[in-house]
Amino acid sequence: MVRPPCCDKLNVKKGLWSEEEDAKMLAYVSKHGTGNWTAVPKKAGLRRCGKSCRLRWTNYLRPDLKRESFTPQEEELIIRLHAAIGSRWSIIAQQLPGRTDNDVKNYWNTKLRKKLSEMGIDPVTHKPFSQILADYGNIGGLPKSRARIGSLNRDMKNAFLTRPEPFPPPATAAEGFSNINNRLMTTIASPGMEPIQDNFFPNNSINHHPDSDSLELLSQLQAIKVVTEATNYTGHQTISPQFPNKYSLSLSSPSSSSTSSTCSTAAQEKSGLAFSWRDFLLEDAFLPTDHTQGQEDRILEFSSDEIVPQSHSSNGTSAENIDNNNSDNNGVQGISGGGVPSHGFHASSSTNSSFVAAMIDQENEMFSEFANLLEDPCY
DNA sequence: AAGCTAGACAACCGCGTTCCG
DNA sequence: TCGGAACGCGGTTGTCTAGCT
């Protein structure tokens, strides 16, 4: 690619901006406004590329930028929009006043992606890792396990290579997820649920079809509308009562949006749409299908409002208590002790080993069945 | 105190799109 | 219609800093 003329000069400065440079930029913009960035360095007396000037202005010097850290509401909106339209940072940033696409992108890369991974959700597809691996396992001609893991995206790779248990269930509410994050668990990665885009935004970045660009913009706008509306209510998306495990998100015309995009009812809110972690792994090819009572003990149950270990339901740690605790924190980061939520997994170690053993068994089965394919010299 | 590491964020790079003569 | 310049975007890299050993 041909470099812009302004960037060809050998004496163009790179790296961090000094206060003096910032002052020059501010002085220039306050006098002349923005635009024609290639001319800015010369007019402003800066040894910078015009592109660099534009970035410095839009990402740092603009007076309307927020400096404070992201709020849980902003966090939620980012995740919802990312689930709906993918990494279209500029579009997402437009829904967050005072935030730049760079801000949002950095926040996603440093915080949210990791957070979702720790919750057992693939940040790329917003599907549970277990579901992805199950899907992945259905693809024929699989290479050896290590290479197979190597071909996963980096988030799943991290989940595999840095954790004793490959598919950690979400942490419990007591371990520190806010109500907002709990709701995210149910709206983004609820059991058996197809991701939002699979059902409603077929032209998203994941399922993109090259001939569908005209529909893509509409889908994105609809996605933004729905996501922002849902967030403006209570953070809940419409939940179809007929399909408790298939959360539907209404896409509607403006005339019907007030009714179709409503939040859940108060009763639903109170009772929560409880489902178990077993449901979450329902499609996991590696889990034994017949659950014994012993296995039942390790099932974690969580609702749309809080995540409650089922086996702990009688120990006085009621859902309401947890909810109250979160309320004490104004619904913001109900993390006792602060910090990043732990991976807190209440299952016993034997449970973990049985889970892993099931995986290994499955893998060995495939190896024996497709032994010839495993000799692929590419691996 | 020095070295190391991870996290946060600023900045750069390359590419696609839009604008304009 | 075409080609070059400008702009915008997303991915990646670089730098700084705080915390830990």
UniProtKB/TrEMBL annotation:
Keyword Lipid metabolism: no
GO CC entries: nucleus
Matching Pfam families: Myb_DNA-binding
Major site of localization recorded for this protein: nucleus
GO molecular function: DNA binding
Biased composition (Polar residues): 236-247, 310-320
Boundaries of every Myb-like domain copy: 9-61, 62-112
The keyword Transcription regulation appears for this protein: yes
InterPro entries for the chain: Homeodomain-like_sf (IPR009057), Myb_dom (IPR017930), Myb_TF_plants (IPR015495), SANT/Myb (IPR001005)
Protein's recorded name: Transcription factor MYB35-like
Keywords, ordered alphabetically: Developmental protein, DNA-binding, Nucleus, Repeat, Transcription, Transcription regulation
UniProt xrefs under PANTHER family: F14D16.11-RELATED
Annotated stretches, region: Disordered: 236-264, 307-344
